[in-house]
Design brief:
alpha+beta
Length: 98
Amino acid sequence: MYGLIGKFTATDGNRDALMRILIDGVSGMPGCLSYIVASDPTDANAIWITEAWDSQESHTASLTMPSVQGAIVKGRPMIAGMERIAETRPEGGHGLDS
């Protein structure tokens, strides 16, 4: 498996709208085992994304999907910053087939 943890910083006042775009733009991604979008309770602009995939190749392929490309185009103006916190190798857990 392949995992990512990332942090987006939304422009002021746009966190909820950006989260909605991120959530709506990722349905039906082949190989995606989990895609969690979470608000940060201590930072009004921060969004945490936690992803689990069956492989790194599935993640890479997802970036070419029309729904993901559309989400990128819609969300880009609302993004003040992005950080890739970590690449991980999920070993299992609730909701994942190990």
